[in-house]
Amino acid sequence: MPRTADHDARRRQIAEGVRTIVSEAGLDAATVARVARASGMSVGLVQHYFPSKDALLLFAYRHVMDRIGTRVAQRVAEGEAARGTIAASLRAALREMLPLDHERRSEYRVAQAFAGRSLDSAELAEVGAQTSRRLRDQIAVAVGNGKECGEVEPEVDTGLAAARVLAVTEGLAVQLHREPHGRAGTHPLAEAADAVLLPTLESVFTGTCRQYSR
Amino acid sequence: MPRTADHDARRRQIAEGVRTIVSEAGLDAATVARVARASGMSVGLVQHYFPSKDALLLFAYRHVMDRIGTRVAQRVAEGEAARGTIAASLRAALREMLPLDHERRSEYRVAQAFAGRSLDSAELAEVGAQTSRRLRDQIAVAVGNGKECGEVEPEVDTGLAAARVLAVTEGLAVQLHREPHGRAGTHPLAEAADAVLLPTLESVFTGTCRQYSR
DNA sequence: GAGATAACCGTATGGACATACGGTTATGGC
DNA sequence: GCCATAACCGTATGTCCATACGGTTATCTC
């Protein structure tokens, strides 16, 4: 047997290169040659791990979106462990989607760039759609738990509430990214984000939890 | 004097070509040659009216965003003329931003494509930011009018409410575009849109108008 | 009706890039 | 230690495209 390499690790390394380039200079700047350099390898090696540039970009997109989805899920889990209210842990999770710091801002830019290119490619579009569904389902679960617990009125339409919460979060992300300095009156970004997010959350989570733990 | 042409009309004609191509096949498909063909003219003529491709795209982006902004303003004006509630005319205006029919869907796709490319170009980003500010200001005016009229409680923060309404609208647009068939339970798109939009509007416009006209 | 000038056309050119490909190197098993 | 084979490299190739450019046509003015 010849020498071996960790294919998955290599691919992730390349995807990180894509992420860096795209977030700094946009998707058009992500040529194979530049991606190779950014990942510290040669053009030929990148070709070795991906059959085409399309496959490369698709993988990178999935990579980034998975990271976001995972982080959101993680925050929800943390919230449950901390035994806070469901509304509080959902708030923490949703904030993971907002471009509030360098890391998340970078991810947001990448997601935006790929969303734009999704007009061409059904495959890319599917990645975005899947991520969106996954997020909305996670929110819906939180709302459902809220019903059992007493934080949410039983007659609330779970799916609709989830759609509304996701909509306000995504829309807020758009605005935060366009105006990173914060609006006239409101000072730090974090406050502005809560000022938009919390009223919507409170309109769904109107009650308080009856029992100590689910 | 030699023969003359309507420069503005020509430029708009070209911008329409861009819009068609981008909405059907994405920004990458918008080569100068294809734009020329789609607008029914030669490559040379397109060059005659735009100094560079960047300038061409910038103009086209402005063109599309202006159209959206104008349509929104128009709906608000219509609502005032009809003497309905402010909430009702705002609802009509916001629906102009949603990808509910072919026309608006096409515009949404173009806006999305350009938003993605805005990572490269500060000029493109500025167009998006301006449009966003314009929309939020229009909403803020509506909320302000609502206060005078009695539809909105005086202690509501106008800017924040506007940001929230815009956020939910933009976020809803994202979801509608990704799932054009409508979600499991909800039948036509229009209903689904209202189901998300109206609760948010009602959380701002809680009262009824005291006087017959402003 | 003449000619000046803008409107308009088609092709040439040079650059950028994705991909193909032949070659080199290192390392697992024997 | 040797050899098979994957890991890895650099360059060649052909395509696509934005832009440059020289040429043609129509029309407004006088």
UniProtKB/TrEMBL annotation, chains A, B:
- Extract the DNA-binding region annotation as residue ranges: 31-50
Keywords (A to Z) from UniProt: DNA-binding, Repressor, Transcription, Transcription regulation
PROSITE patterns membership: HTH_TETR_2
Q: Which Gene3D superfamilies match?
A: Tetracycline Repressor, domain 2
Q: Which SUPFAM superfamilies match?
A: Homeodomain-like, Tetracyclin repressor-like, C-terminal domain
Question: GO MF terms on file?
Answer: DNA-binding transcription factor activity; transcription cis-regulatory region binding
Give start and end of each HTH tetR-type domain: 8-68
Q: Which Pfam families match?
A: TetR_C_6, TetR_N
Where would you find the membrane-spanning parts of this chain? none
Q: What is this protein called?
A: TetR family transcriptional regulator C-terminal domain-containing protein
Source organism: Streptomonospora mangrovi
